[in-house]
Write a sequence for this structure.
């Protein structure tokens, strides 16, 4: 009587081929795309398992880049922004190229230095419908757009709202030189608007989340 073939076994960790980096369930990884002209895919490992021939597979939950979503990339999407999707898959562990970190939006805005392997996520994404959770986020500026951490914004000392320099008639260079500024709505009708006495120029960070 033939012996039953051993089934799959769960693994606690996997060492990325050609490296000393170890990944475990819960880690975020960069995965090699079939089209070499595209950036690596980003996924969160849910499970690692090996079959009887010791072929290692990973069950992953994909992150989507804005341009991969149904609605496409929009003005407020940052360069390092990802959406955690409800799209699960099983891939060969050999396609893992490296590890990365997907931060919460709040933690990402507090990073002093953003590395090549740093990303952030503020939305979950339904791949089939294109829906997002949450479906609403805070908006800022006269243009009423969500915050993009890649864009410089300046804060009015009066209303404490944040503005894109272009939306208030300034260049980025001018905004960086300002120490203080009060927006037009907060300036009294009797005062002449003086750019040098308004907005605190900042890259926003804590106050924007």
């Amino acid at each position: 009587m033939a012996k039953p073939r051993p089934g799959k076994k769960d693994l606690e960790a996997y060492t990325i081929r050609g490296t000393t980096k170890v990944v475990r369930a819960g880690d975020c990884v960069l995965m090699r795309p079939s089209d070499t002209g595209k950036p690596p895919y980003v996924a969160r490992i849910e499970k690692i398992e090996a079959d009887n021939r010791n072929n290692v597979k990973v069950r992953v939950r994909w992150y989507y880049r804005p341009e991969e979503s149904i609605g496409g990339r929009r003005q407020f999407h940052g360069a390092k922004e990802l959406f955690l999707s409800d799209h699960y898959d099983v891939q060969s562990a050999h396609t893992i190229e490296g590890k990365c970190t997907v931060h919460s939006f709040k933690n990402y805005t507090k990073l002093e230095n953003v590395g090549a392997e740093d990303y952030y996520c503020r939305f979950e994404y339904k791949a089939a419908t294109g829906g997002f959770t949450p479906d609403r986020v805070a908006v800022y500026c006269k243009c009423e757009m969500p915050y993009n951490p890649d864009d410089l914004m300046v804060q009015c000392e009066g209303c404490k709202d944040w503005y894109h320099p272009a939306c208030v008639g300034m260049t980025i260079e001018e905004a960086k030189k300002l120490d203080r500024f009060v927006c037009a709505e907060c300036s009294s009708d009797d005062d002449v608007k003086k750019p040098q006495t308004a907005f605190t120029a900042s890259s926003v960070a804590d106050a924007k989340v």
